[in-house]
Prior knowledge:
With about 270 residues, this protein is α+β, with helices and mostly antiparallel strands.
Amino acid sequence: MIPFTKAHACGNDFLIVSEEAAGNHDRAELTRRLCARNTGIGADGIEFFSWTGPRAGRIRLYNADGSIAEISGNGTRCVAAWMAEALASPPGDTLEITTDAGLRICRVNGIHRTAGFSVDITTRMGIPTIAPRTVKLAAGLEIEGAEVSTGNPHFVIAVDNEMFDVAGKAWQLIGAQICAHPDFPSQTNVEFLRVLTPSEIEIRIFERGVGPTLSSGTGTSAAAAAALALHGCKSPLKVVAPGGPQTVACSGPGDELQLTGPAALIARGEAWSA
């Protein structure tokens, strides 16, 4: 049996499994099996975790399809919530989590126990890189956007309609095409942003290895970085995804992004090993 904890951040759900518990299991196969929505536990991915210090850990993220991702902002926050519960962390505590995209520092802002265990956390997401870019699709349609790195790759597209359509086509279709575009040999996450006010944007997310998803921490950060740099928005910026809002703060170009949002533990259990 493999012990797991299930957690979510704005509807972006993950399983947390210790490296020790995963043992010699093939991580990709195990992830596909456990993340299956109808025949498994169901999740967007698994964070495989090991302790590296009293308040420090190492994670490696596998997407639901078995592919490896450098980082998930929401997945990292879920792990921080799990660590905070295990350590009985008080508000103000800081936790160090090493990802394949580098070290992330998570500050516990508040803890709520009225309905389970949830935590408000601010994560230092690193300094983004932003470059305007045009992607040409197979049908000849040219999509203007911005290539953004938040430790993993993103392509952010600004839209001006409530449906998030691009050139009359559904965002899910455009997202799938750009995600797997030859310009991105390792594929890319795709965000669609709509500016509501200078201090608030709304987004839709097509996540590499998952597809359309309710939320993404790195996607929220990438969309905010593009909105701040290219679309006249200001910090702190409220970013609303279908799974709920998060806030991104950045003092200016070259400064680190600060992502604030909730994470909640859902359940603990054991899964049959193959």
